[in-house]
């Protein structure tokens, strides 16, 4: 129903470089042409600017999903892609609205990154905390 590549995965699958929102849309269109029904292309923090940008493309319409980038010395993004796709799948089990499911999944992951947990004291990265949104709200 939905494929969820990150920018680097989408570059490999499409053979193109992705450095802008327009590139993201073009890559998503190419992935739909390869057979995907919907593409949630995760740009995350790799594009320039203050927003973490993803794009959902349904074969007709490209919708940008944005959240403020989380300025942290230590990034708690390990597991973000897996958490996003799992949250999206769980949401799709409750609704057929792919856009609503994707928007909620993006918010869920944003809270998880914002309140992430250390892997250990050796690494300067940490894990997404999947319980963060529930705890904060």
Features of the shown structure:
alpha/beta, 137 residues, 5 helices, single chain
Description:
With 137 residues, this protein is an alpha/beta fold. 41% of the residues lie in helices and 22% in strands. The protein has five helices and seven strands; from the N terminus they run E-H-H-E-E-E-E-H-H-E-E-H. It has a four-stranded mixed β-sheet with strand order 1-2-3-4, sandwiched between helices. A three-stranded mixed β-sheet has the order 5-7-6, covered by helices on one side. Helix 1 crosses helix 2 and helix 3 runs antiparallel to helix 4. It is globular. The protein starts with a strand and ends with a helix. The relative contact order is 0.15.
In short:
This protein is an alpha/beta fold.
For the largest sheet, list the strands in their spatial order: 1-2-3-4
Q: How many DSSP-defined strands?
A: 7
From N to C, what is the helix and strand string? EHHEEEEHHEEH
Strand coverage percent: 15-25%
In whole angstroms, the N-to-C terminal distance is 30 Å
Number of helices: 5
Report the sheet with the most strands, covering strand number, pairing sense and barrel closure.
Answer: 4 strands, mixed
DSSP helix fraction? 40-55%
Specify the overall morphology.
globular
User: Which secondary-structure class do the elements indicate?
Assistant: alpha/beta
Rg, rounded, reads: 15 Å
Would you tell me the overall average pLDDT? 90
Poorly predicted runs are none
What's the helix and strand layout?
Elements lengths: L1 E2 L3 H8 L6 H13 L4 E5 L8 E7 L4 E7 L6 E4 L1 H13 L5 H17 L2 E2 L6 E3 L4 H5 L1
Parallel strand pairs: 1-2, 5-7
Antiparallel strand pairs: 2-3, 3-4, 6-7
Helix pairs in contact: 1-2, 3-4
